[in-house]
Design goal:
Blueprint (H helix, E strand, L loop, with lengths): L1 E4 L4 E5 L3 H13 L5 E6 L3 E6 L6 H9 L13 E6 L6 H8 L3 H9 L3 E6 L6 E4 L14 E4 L3 E5 L2 E4 L4 E3 L2 E5 L20 E6 L26 E6 L5 E3 L19 H11 L7 E5 L4 E4 L3 E7 L4 E4 L5 E4 L5 E3 L4 E4 L7 E6 L30 E3 L26 E8 L8 H9 L2 E3 L7 E5 L15 E2 L4 E3 L7 E3 L6 E2 L3 E5 L4 H4 L7 E6 L12
Parallel strand pairs: 5-13, 25-33
Antiparallel strand pairs: 1-2, 2-4, 3-4, 6-7, 6-13, 8-11, 9-10, 9-12, 14-17, 14-24, 15-16, 16-23, 17-22, 18-21, 18-23, 19-20, 19-22, 25-32, 26-27, 26-33, 27-30, 28-31, 29-30, 29-32
C-alpha cells in the first residue's frame, strides 16, 4: 500500500489490484474515518478527499494502513439486463485480437455475468468486471474523437457502456438503446457499484423493451407576471454555478461548481444571499439582460464596465462588488473584462432554478445541471426572502486579476505521478513558462510550452481518480490543468496539482497569459504516523 499526495486535501492510495481497491473502499464505506469527504475507486487506486482540520494526511494514512484488504466485492442481488445490437466498429478487431470468431465473441459476452466495480469517467459509466478472460483486449492505439451514446465496449479486463457521446479508446462491440444516465430516474445512473449485469443479443431475442423517453428535469415555468430577467445578449453561454455537487462520485459525477468561488461568495454577500446560492458565471463579458421586476443585483469577479439604461433611456454606470438597484424595464449590460476571465451575477433572493442532484452547478463536460443561458433565455427570480441577510458594502476582490500576456505564478503540490517523469521533465515543468491556449475551457486549461515534459517511458496508466487543479500530461508532453468540470477519472499521469489556495486564481487566468508553476514542497510519499 502506497500513499501519494494529490493536493493539500487529497491523497491517492496505490494498491496491488482491483480486489484490494474494492476491499479498502468497502471497509471505509462500512467503517468511515472522520474527516474523509469523498472517495473515488479505480483499477488499482483509491483517491480520498479529506478535511485537514479534522485529520492530517499522515494520520489518515496510518488509519487506512491497518485496514483488512482480504474481503472481496460482494455483488448485490440486483441484476441489470442490457439488450445489445452487436454491430460495433471494433467487433472484428476484437475477434482477431482474441483469436475467436465474431459469433464466439458475442456468445462469451452474453454468457458472462458482470459486476459493477466502480463508476467514473462520465456520469453513469460503470466499470464492469467478471467477464470471460478470453475477452480481455487492450484499448485502441488511437482513441476515437466521438463514441456514440449506448456503445458497449471492452478495455483490459473491463466491459462498459458509454452513457453519452464522448471521446474514448475502448473497443466498441455493439450498442444498446437503454439510457445509462437518466435524471428522471432515482438514482439517475442505471449502474450502481455492486450491481450484477448481463448482456443479451437483441438479434436473437423476441423481448420488447420499454425504452425511456427524453425528459427535462431543469426547466422552471416563467409566466408573464413572474419576476424575471430576459437575456438580450450572451456572446458566450453563461452557466449557473454554486459551490459544487458533492457526494455523487459513486455515480461517476464530479463536483463542478464556480471556478472562482471567492467571487461567487462575495456576489452573494453583496446582495444578502447565503454565500452558496447559485449565481450566473459569465465568461468574457458582453452579457446583457432586461429586468421585468424590481431587483438588487451585484457583479463580482473579472472587472467589466457595467451600464444600466432605464425606461427613459438614461444611461447610468455601476461598480462591481457593490449592490445595484434595478427597476422594471432597466437594461443591464456588462462590457468586456480588462483582466480575468469570469464574472458572477447574483440577485437578491436568488434565481428560481431546480437543483440537479442537490446542486445548481452546470457541469459542461458531464452535461449535468441547468441548461446554459443564451440570448432569449428567461431567468425566473425566486421570491422567498426567509434566508436573506443585510447587504454587504465592504466586498473586494480576493486577488489582482491577471491580464493576457502577464505571468501568473501558481503554487502546486507535486504528485501523485511525479516519479513517472525524468529530472529534465520536472525542471521543464517548473522553469518554463506555459502559455494558456484558446482551447481552454471550464474542463481544463490547455497549456503550450517550447519544451514538452519528458517521461521515463510511454507505458499506459490504468485510469485513476483526478482532482480539480490536477496537471495531467498526455503523450504530447503538453500539460492540461484540470478545472472544475474535469472528468472524474483519467488515464494520463498527473505530475502535480495546483494548491487549493490558488484554484480561484487559476479559474481567472485568461487566454495568452503565461503560467509559472511553483512547487511548495519536494515530491515524497505520505508516511503513515507510527503509534
Amino acid at each position: 500500500m502506497r500513499f501519494l499526495p494529490v493536493s493539500l486535501t487529497t491523497m491517492l492510495i496505490e494498491l496491488a489490484d482491483l480486489d484490494e481497491t474494492l476491499a479498502l473502499f468497502a471497509s471505509l464505506e462500512a467503517n468511515p474515518i472522520a474527516g474523509i469527504q469523498d472517495m473515488v475507486p479505480a483499477a488499482r487506486t483509491l483517491m480520498i478527499r479529506y478535511q485537514r482540520e479534522l485529520i492530517s494526511a499522515e494520520a489518515l494514512a496510518q488509519e487506512i494502513s491497518t485496514r483488512d484488504l482480504s474481503a472481496k466485492l460482494k455483488p448485490s442481488d440486483h441484476l441489470v439486463e442490457i439488450p445489445v445490437t452487436y454491430d460495433g466498429e471494433d467487433l472484428g478487431d476484437v475477434a482477431e485480437l482474441t483469436g475467436l470468431t465474431v459469433k464466439e465473441v458475442i456468445r462469451r459476452h452474453t454468457e458472462s455475468t458482470f459486476t459493477v466495480a466502480f463508476c467514473g469517467f462520465a456520469p453513469g459509466f460503470g466499470y464492469l468486471v467478471g467477464g470471460d478472460p478470453a475477452l480481455h483486449v487492450p484499448r485502441r492505439k488511437s482513441p476515437r474523437t466521438r463514441i456514440p451514446a449506448g456503445a458497449v465496449a471492452l478495455a483490459g479486463n473491463f466491459s462498459g457502456v458509454y452513457p453519452q457521446a464522448s471521446p474514448g479508446g475502448w473497443q466498441i462491440i455493439g450498442v444498446t438503446p437503454l439510457k445509462m444516465w437518466d435524471l428522471s430516474r432515482d438514482p439517475p445512473a442505471l449502474f450502481q457499484p455492486g450491481h450484477q449485469v448481463r448482456f443479451s443479443d437483441m438479434a436473437n431475442s423476441a423481448k420488447v423493451y420499454d425504452l425511456p423517453t427524453e425528459t427535462s428535469a431543469i426547466s422552471a415555468a416563467t409566466g408573464e407576471h413572474t419576476p424575471h430577467f430576459k437575456v438580450l445578449a450572451a456572446p458566450m453561454p453563461a452557466v449557473f454555478q454554486d459551490l459544487g455537487r458533492f457526494g455523487q462520485t459513486g455515480q461517476g459525477v464530479s463536483a463542478s461548481g464556480a471556478l472562482d468561488q471567492s467571487a461567487l461568495k462575495a456576489a452573494n454577500r453583496v446582495v444578502g444571499n447565503p454565500v452558496g446560492s447559485a449565481c450566473l458565471e459569465i465568461t468574457l463579458g458582453g452579457f446583457s439582460f432586461e429586468t421585468a421586476a424590481r431587483a438588487v443585483i451585484a457583479f463580482t469577479g473579472a472587472p467589466c464596465p457595467i451600464s444600466i439604461r432605464d425606461a427613459q433611456g438614461r444611461i447610468l454606470n455601476a461598480s462591481p462588488y457593490q449592490p445595484i438597484a434595478l427597476e422594471p424595464g432597466d437594461v443591464v449590460t456588462l462590457g468586456q473584462p480588462a483582466a480575468g476571465m469570469r464574472s458572477y451575477l447574483a440577485v437578491r433572493g436568488g434565481f428560481k432554478i431546480k437543483p440537479v442532484l442537490g446542486s445548481a452547478a452546470t457541469d459542461t463536460l458531464a452535461v449535468v445541471g441547468p441548461d446554459p443561458v443564451t440570448t432569449g433565455t428567461v431567468l425566473a427570480l425566486a421570491e422567498d426572502t426567509t434566508a436573506l441577510t443585510s447587504v454587504s458594502l465592504t466586498e473586494a476582490p480576493a486577488f489582482a486579476f491577471p491580464k493576457a500576456g502577464e505571468i501568473v505564478t501558481l503554487d502546486m503540490v507535486l504528485g501523485p505521478r511525479t516519479d513517472w517523469f525524468t529530472d529534465n521533465g520536472l525542471t521543464t515543468l517548473t522553469a518554463q513558462l506555459w502559455q494558456v491556449t484558446p482551447q481552454s475551457s471550464r474542463v481544463g486549461i490547455r497549456l503550450a510550452g517550447d519544451v514538452a515534459l519528458e517521461r521515463f517511458d510511454s507505458k499506459e496508466l490504468p485510469s485513476e481518480g483526478t482532482a480539480t487543479g490536477a496537471i495531467q500530461v498526455p503523450h504530447s508532453g503538453q500539460p492540461v490543468l484540470f478545472l472544475a468540470d474535469h472528468p472524474l477519472t483519467g488515464g494520463y499521469p498527473v505530475i502535480g496539482a495546483v494548491a487549493e489556495h490558488h484554484l480561484d486564481l487559476a479559474g481567472q487566468v485568461p487566454i495568452n497569459a503565461k503560467i509559472r508553476f511553483r512547487p511548495i514542497a519536494p515530491f515524497a510519499d505520505i508516511t503513515p504516523n507510527k503509534r
